[in-house]
Every structure is written in C-alpha cells, then in structure tokens.
Amino acid sequence: MTYPLVIIGGGLAGLIAALEMARAGIRVLVIERKSYPHHKVCGEYISNEVRPYLHSLGFMPEEFSSAELTQFRFTSPKGSVLDHPLDLGGFGLSRYTMDEALYKLALRAGVEFLVNTSVTEVEFRDTFFEIKTSDNQAFRAQIVHGAFGKRTRLDKQLNRKFMAKESPYVGVKYHIRGNFDRQRISLHNFENGYCGMSAIEDDKFCLCYLTERNMVRKYGSISALETNILSQNPHLKNIFEEAEFLYQKPEVINEISFEPKSCVENHILMAGDSAGLITPLCGNGMAMAIRAAFLLSQELVRYFKVHHSRALLEKSYETAWQKEFSRRLTIGRTVQKLFGRKVLSELALHFFTLTPPLLHQVIKSTHGRVMSVPTIYTGS
Ligand SMILES: Cc1cc2nc3c(=O)[nH]c(=O)nc-3n(C[C@H](O)[C@H](O)[C@H](O)COP(=O)(O)OP(=O)(O)OC[C@H]3O[C@@H](n4cnc5c(N)ncnc54)[C@H](O)[C@@H]3O)c2cc1C
C-alpha cells in the first residue's frame, strides 16, 4: 500500500501532525507500537504555551478535569525550599488520557492507524520510502515523519549517532493520591537526580523522577533507592510515607539520552523527542513536541499543495526547527548540571532565592512564546 505520508509513532508529535494533515486533506497512516490508552514515563505537566493551539484542534484539557498549575517549588536534597510563581503556568493531565483523546480526535478526522505494530525498517529509495513492520507488512510512502520518541530500535537501524553513546539516565513514574497542593509543580532534588510532582485529573498526582542507572544498581532496586536516597529529602520522604500509590509497580524507562540529534535524517523528518529531548526539569518536552509537529505540518502542507522539492522541504524544516528549539535544548542541558548534585543544587537554590529575576529568566528561556492560534497554509 502506498501513502503520501506515513508517521512512525503515535505519541504527541505524531498525533498532532496526523491531525493537521487530516485537516489539510492529506492522506496519512500512523503506525504505533502500542494500543491506546497506555501509560508513559512523563511528568505530565503541560506548559500553557500550547493550550490555545490544543483548543484550536478541538482538544480541551479542561473537559478531562485537568489541574491548573500556577506555582513552582524547588527543594534541595536537604529540604531547603524556594517558591516562585509560574508566569505562564500550565495544566496537569495524564498521558493515558491525553494521548487517547488526541487519538480519537485523529480517528474522527480520518487519520488511518495501525496500532500494536512496530516499524522495524525504513529505507529511502531515491523517490520514496519502503517501510517494514513487526507483523511483516510493507508500505510505501512519499514522505516519512519520524515521531518515535526518545529511543527505539529503529534509531539503531537508521545508524543514528546518539545511539553510539551509552546514556546513564533512568526515568520512573507513579500516579499517587494524597493531601498535597494541587496548584503547585514541585521539583525535589536528591543525590544524582530530581523528582517532579504535580496534580493531574481525578484528584491524582503524577510523581516522576530522573536518576542515573548506577544509583539503582548501587542500592539493588528502585524501592531501596527511594528509601535510602530519595527519602533523604524530607519533602520526598513525606510523599513516600503519606501518599497512596496507585500502580502495582512503577513505569520505568532506561537509556534516556539528551544528546543532540538531527531533525532530518536519511530524509526522515523528525519531531518531538526523536529530533531532540529537552531535560525534563524544564517541564516542556510535550509543548516542544506539539510545536515541532505544527512546524513540520506547515512545511508538509506546502510540500504537498505547492509541490515543493524534497530538498526545499528538508532545508526549510531544518531551519525552522533550529531557530525554534536549538537554544532551548542547550540551556536545558546546561541547567540540568546544577541539579541532583548535593552542594551545587543547594547553592543554586540560595543563589536563585537572592536573585528571583534570574530564575524567572531561566524558566523563560527554556520555554517558548504562547503559540498563537495558527492557520496552516492550505494552498487555496
Ligand atoms: C522522566 C521524564 C519526565 C518528563 N516530564 C515532562 C513534563 O512534566 N512535561 C513535559 O512537557 N515533558 C516532560 N517530559 C518529556 C515528554 O515526555 C516528551 O518530550 C514527549 O513525550 C515527547 O513526545 P513524542 O511524541 O516525541 O514522543 P512519545 O510521546 O514518547 O511518542 C513516541 C511514540 O512512538 C512509539 N514508537 C516508538 N518506536 C516505534 C516504532 N518503531 N514503531 C512504531 N511506534 C513506535 C511509542 O510507542 C510512542 O507512543 C519528560 C520526560 C522524561 C524522560
């Protein structure tokens, strides 16, 4: 079967691009490894920079009782506290709910889906792509959009550079209930890691942390690490003692890489984490995935409706992507170095307490402007 566009991965980037394509009347197939709904390791705080845009697509987080997040708390491993209002703020909604809602919107808009199916191979052959899947199906596509997230076997098949470098990071997530502030997103530091907590729908909270694999090895298990290290921060100790944990076991992902990637590789156009993952402490990887999918959709509509060349499509997408994201990613990587180090994060906390405008500036520079409600060029 041949499609003008195949999207590999139906997370945020893939679903948004698919919706935009369907709205522009371009036939699209999304191939997604899992079925909907499913849990994902993610802090589930979504910056308001994309809220008006999501509304314009017909997705209303408020209809799912999302939480309104307006305050930020930073704590050091010893438990010192810095509170700061969030100018722009955001909302809290689980990926379980959000991805499924976008999937349903996309289905209604006419997007074709192949779920529970992994893409195992993509090959570019001069003018088209050949795509093979885990259930031995084969597809052809004029354009392939890679929206397959942080790291997948496909990255290896495509020989992507960042795969050569081992990544030490592990992500762990829970949904919990408890008597905590529902307007505040907290970032609690501990030795070699940090843990975010913020409210989501149905009186729940998302508790999600990033640490290094050797910490889990050193203590023998995730729960031993939580007891011995995370709980040294009194705020985390309180959460682990007081909260009701709603999963049998946590969601865990390994090998999280923050290495620079390329947004066009083997002629595949990447958006979201497959183009570059911002460090989670910045709290806006999802907004970036949504914004990147929109940027790409604009270029794709021009390509299909005005018949631009592939070279022009790749060049103009790369330029737009770099302009929008490369500075944010660099700042995110730099700021991450301050966190999870006992002395450094204590110093950073005291420094930012004395200079609130600087903290304000750091938060601002890792986020984008609010997306105005856009109209994609349709060629008519
Ligand atoms: C610990 C942690 C905490 C975070 N917290 C936040 C936060 O609070 N706020 C925020 O904004 N961002 C956060 N992020 C970042 C955010 O989760 C990502 O930036 C966002 O999910 C990117 O969306 P995406 O569409 O690129 O990838 P994903 O949402 O991961 O989607 C990729 C999809 O591709 C599918 N897939 C993979 N391989 C294949 C294949 N071969 N074939 C078919 N399908 C495939 C996967 O199943 C998946 O559904 C966090 C990240 C981490 C690691």
Automatic annotation (TrEMBL):
Regions annotated as coiled coil: none
Start and end residues of each FAD-binding domain: 4-61
Pfam family, one: FAD_binding_3
Gene3D superfamilies: FAD/NAD(P)-binding domain
Record-linked InterPro entries: FAD-bd, FAD/NAD-bd_sf, Geranylgeranyl_reductase
SUPFAM superfamilies: FAD/NAD(P)-binding domain
Source domain of life: Bacteria
Gene Ontology terms, MF aspect: FAD binding
Name of the protein this chain belongs to: NAD(P)/FAD-dependent oxidoreductase
